[in-house]
Amino acid sequence: MKERQEAIKRYIERKGDVTLSELTKEFSDWSEMTIRRDLEFLEQRRFLIRTKRGARIMPTSYEVSVGMYGEREKRNCDLKQEIATKAAALVETDISMYLDAGSTAMMLARELPDRNLIITTSAPNIGIEIVLKKKNPTVILLGGTLQRKTISTCGLNVLDQLKTLNIDTAFVCASGYTDATGFSVGGQHECVLKRAIIASARRVIMLMDSSKLNSILPFTFARLSDIDTFVTDSKAPESIKAAFRAAGVHVI
Amino acid sequence: MKERQEAIKRYIERKGDVTLSELTKEFSDWSEMTIRRDLEFLEQRRFLIRTKRGARIMPTSYEVSVGMYGEREKRNCDLKQEIATKAAALVETDISMYLDAGSTAMMLARELPDRNLIITTSAPNIGIEIVLKKKNPTVILLGGTLQRKTISTCGLNVLDQLKTLNIDTAFVCASGYTDATGFSVGGQHECVLKRAIIASARRVIMLMDSSKLNSILPFTFARLSDIDTFVTDSKAPESIKAAFRAAGVHVI
DNA sequence: CGTGTTTTGTGAATTATTCACATCTTCGTC
DNA sequence: GACGAAGATGTGAATAATTCACAAAACACG
């Protein structure tokens, strides 16, 4: 496969859904016809499917996280991508890690290196994504009732399942944060799971885009003191980042 | 949603990928424009995506089972569909059932009624499929290591997980059968799981298309005496069906 | 260099899609 | 059962996208 085709593939993998004109603008060194032929080439190899006026990433579980929830998820796509890229740099080979549910975590999953990793997750879509796109990581899915809204499992016996797993680094996502309430989410079950994960992991890395700062959701699952590292995007206000650092959190 | 739109949706769900001209031929009572509008309607509701000259089923986990593995899975698609339809008729409301991994099981999942059911499965793609497309069933995913080949989980503690679950009816798939060897599969882990399921379920329904009869795979997980019902397609030879019936198995 | 092969670009021909509008249904109301 | 409103469907022209054939350019190799 040519370099340009690889680049087109990567571009579409990130965007999920692109138009031909978008691609011709992005890859303006080549003609529309060439890009068209590349799309045909990539479609034949099942990397993507061509749509009416462009192409879309080959749907595995991608659509479950981004497409399905639609606009809300796509809105802060760039911020989340930035976070995912930064977080992926923190992943070490040969470790046991936990990956949370959610679209930011899905993007992180796509950025993970194809190396020897043990990845535990409660998000089956993320697990499938990893297993289909990478050869080396081992994926462990937590069992339990599959929640419709979050596409993640939660079970009464999560604690039992975690007992036999030693998680080194946990990548956890939050839906809200304020100084007073800490990190919060919308679901009770998620809250319980995240707490258990945080309690058992050696190192906790929190992923959260700046749009979620200063919002409160019903269930608090962690305080600043519970986390080691905080990964956010460049739009996060310096004041908050400074406050986090003052509390001993490594902010990236 | 209109009846025609439902029918178009079903048609595309079965075919996976259709052209507009195929649809206008199939639904010749209506004009191309109407079909076009229906596709737009269905796309908005995220049931499918429109491609260059037609439409394709909305990729959730469908592609994981059918598209991804490609031709092999598509080959006996009609046989499997027949089995799935017959098996769906055996599903009762308000029961706890187990659904195996595999493309036949995926098709059964799509045929399930949108009613109150507790569905346990080791196939996360099937679980996601159900949860995204139906409102009423509760899905329980078994935890464990996610296998790349089968997209199913298997864990050391499956037995523990099953202890708290009372499964009434188990729909189990096999990859091979001969009188001498019984029902067999290719993976050791699958074998263990299927055995555990069969041991704990009140009623076992085996799903297998006729192309798999008279083939042997490495691991036997069940004998004729272990199953209650055998669902196969119309191409299965009468002699085998008669032999099964003679052994006390209900053949459909 | 020269030749054959592959890749890329161009524009015309073909095909698909959209749009505006006309017609036909359906349904509630008097 | 007549009427009007709202929605669904069909038609054809306008627009846009895609394909195709072929020419030009880039590349490989002796």
Describe this structure in words.
Two copies of one chain form a homodimer. Residues 60-74 of chain A have low confidence and may be disordered. The longest helix of chain A has 13 residues, at 3-15. Chain A has helices at residues 3-15, 20-26, 32-44, 62-67, 71-75, 77-88, 103-111, 124-133, 158-163, 188-200, 238-246, and strands at 17-19, 48-51, 54-57, 96-99, 118-121, 138-141, 144-147, 152-154, 169-173, 176-178, 182-185, 203-207, 219-222, 229-231, 250-251. Chain A folds into two domains: 3-58; 65-251, Rossmann fold (3-Layer(aba) Sandwich), CATH 3.40.50.1360. In chain A, β7 (144-147) and β8 (152-154) form a beta hairpin. Chain A has eleven helices and 15 strands. The two termini of chain A are 35 Å apart. The first copy, chain A, is of the alpha/beta class and 252 residues long. In chain A, the strands form four sheets. A seven-stranded parallel β-sheet of chain A has the order 6-5-4-9-12-14-15, with helices on both faces. In chain A, strands 1-3-2 form a three-stranded antiparallel β-sheet. β6 of chain A pairs antiparallel with β7 (144-147) of chain B, so a sheet runs across the interface. Chain A binds a DNA duplex (30 and 30 nucleotides) through residues 2, 20, 30-34, 36-37, 52-53.
Task: Quickly describe the structure.
Chain A is α/β, with parallel strands linked by helices and 252 residues long. Chain A is 41% helix and 22% strand. The first copy, chain A, has 2 domains: 3-58; 65-251, Rossmann fold (3-Layer(aba) Sandwich), CATH 3.40.50.
